[in-house]
From TrEMBL:
<keyword id="KW-0732">Signal</keyword>
<dbReference type="InterPro" id="IPR011256">
    <property type="entry name" value="Reg_factor_effector_dom_sf"/>
</dbReference>
<dbReference type="InterPro" id="IPR006917">
    <property type="entry name" value="SOUL_heme-bd"/>
</dbReference>
<dbReference type="Pfam" id="PF04832">
    <property type="entry name" value="SOUL"/>
</dbReference>
<feature type="signal peptide">
    <location>
        <begin position="1"/>
        <end position="24"/>
    </location>
</feature>
<protein>
    <submittedName>
        <fullName>SOUL family heme-binding protein</fullName>
    </submittedName>
</protein>
Amino acid sequence: MFTSRLAVTALVCLTLLAPPAAMAIEEPRHTVIETSGPFQIRQYEPTLMAEVEVSGERSDAINKGFRVLANFIFGNNRVQQKIAMTAPVTQVAEPASTKIAMTAPVTQVPVTPGDGQAAGEQRWRVAFMMPSQYTMDTLPLPNDPRIKIGVMPGERRVAVVFDGFSTQANLGKHREMLEQFVKERGLTPIGPYMVAFYNDPFTLPWNRRNEWWVPVAP
């Protein structure tokens, strides 16, 4: 579903834009309900996020989106305040009919072409999770009107944790593993499968942490 080039491009963009000390240190708050080998069932708390819609080829689009959002958190907001980076960076593919909704985590999502968009060109939603210290009332507002702020509601997710680079084969293998686990447990997915990356592109493959997530009915 996602190529290694896409994942590396996204994370290189963050690495180049952010100083080392600002790299992701906070993760979405959650409680681990169960661990079974590489699988976990987790309960996530609501998460504030910032999102932008961009268009173009996949790697170009994610660069555009990341640069817009990185510009926002590095001070291009109403109070010129820097906002800490968080982890992970996630990407999710949704049905083409899906419109922007502020109920997705840090994501890149394809959206139906339109609004003067060139034929064959893809639109994407790219988003960052905001640090938990902020609320809708205290988060600095972006100067860029393309950026939307919203809340991902608390939800239960099943995850599979794996290392290695984000090659299509590696991602495909573990996506299938997660789908099988969900099926065997009799769980009901209530949202899209999303892939999460926790490391910069220079981390060695055996030290990398990647995850597939899917929200399920409690």
